[in-house]
Design brief:
alpha/beta; Rossmann fold; 8 helices; Cysteine hydrolase
């Protein structure tokens, strides 16, 4: 993939006392070869690399005292929005929305797990802010900066980052700790986020900023 030209070392811009590491949708159905996407034939190798780096970032955040926040899609058939179902039908993929169903195992975390004191958010769709108390939990901890990671870059990472910006948070997307299933889409999404609402950084730069 073409190199991104605008990654930076965040330094004290991500002071642990006011920063949360946001881990978006590292779940079986999105990240594991055994999940819905893996079984459909998607190449999951990029997800594995991203999760490796997310594990490194979680460890660094805990050691530095930064908040760690885990996002999960949790759905039931009755929770699927009519807009989602109609969109799927109109584009010829009805039923494709059946992912991360509660009780299926696909909604489970993959290779990561929250600990007491972490933030956990259950959501129905893309943004971690929509229909949740994520903003309230962050404000209660005095957090004004988010370091965003996860899957997929073009969907839930993008939506969460843009909504964070609209909620007046400073955002950093860790470009090598996010993944999608298309290199060109990955690159273009990261460029668009940098252009409109976020700064880009890398796993090594964040670890260094947190004393690693």
């Amino acid at each position: 993939m073409q190199a991104l030209p605008h990654e930076l070392a965040p330094g004290d811009m991500i002071a642990p006392s006011r920063t949360a590491l946001v881990v978006v949708d590292i779940q079986v159905d999105f990240a594991s070869p055994e999940g819905v996407l893996g079984r459909s034939g998607m190449d999951m190798s990029g997800c594995e690399v991203a999760v490796d780096r997310i594990e490194t970032l979680i460890d660094a955040a805990r050691k530095a005292g930064a908040t760690v926040a885990f996002m999960r899609v949790m759905t039931r058939p009755e929770s699927d929005s009519q807009a989602l179902k109609t969109w799927m039908e109109r584009r010829g993929t009805p039923g494709h929305e059946a992912i991360c169903r509660i009780g299926s195992g696909g909604e489970d975390y993959y290779r990561v797990a929250p600990q007491p004191g972490d933030i956990e958010i259950s959501k129905l769709a893309y943004s971690s802010f929509h229909g949740t108390d994520f903003d309230m939990q962050l404000r209660a901890r005095g957090i004004d900066t988010l370091v965003v990671t996860g899957i997929s870059t073009d969907c839930c990472v993008d939506s969460t980052t843009r909504d964070a910006f609209h909620h007046n948070y400073h955002t950093f997307v860790v470009s090598d700790a996010c993944a999608t299933f298309d290199d060109e889409l990955q690159l273009n999404t990261l460029k668009a986020l940098w252009l409109h609402c976020s700064l880009l950084t890398t796993t090594d730069a964040v670890v260094a900023a947190w004393g690693g």
